[in-house]
Amino acid sequence: MGAALARELAARHARIALLGLERAALEQLAATLPTPALARARFRRRPPQRPIAQTGPLGAGGRAAHRPH
Asked: How far is CA 28 from CA 3, 13, 41, 49, 59, in A?
């Protein structure tokens, strides 16, 4: 949600959860709101180093696939 919308909702006594990539900007906006706000920065996940899909019961590496219960 944009900063203007967050301010408008906070002015109506809503508690806001701010999510985004820029932690400093989120915390700065949360500090200026008239109601309590939660600011959380999310980082983009990196792609896996190895493929996670397996081709069969033994997988590509010749080992049995680990299946959590």
From this structure: 11, 19, 12, 35, 48
pLDDT digits (tens, 9 = 90+) for 23-59: 899 999 999 999 999 998 877 666 656 665 655 555 5
pLDDT for 30 equals: 93
Within 13 A of 23's CA, how many CA atoms are on the CB side?
4
The pLDDT of residue 53 is 60
12: in domain: yes
Could you tell me if residue 52 is inside a domain? no
Establish if 55 belongs to a structural domain: no
Query: 34, 25, 31: which is closest to 2 by C-alpha?
Result: 25
Q: Please indicate, yes or no, if residue 37 is contained in any of the structural domains.
A: yes
Tokens for 55, please give them.
């081709």
Residue range(s) defining the domain that contains residue 37: 3-41
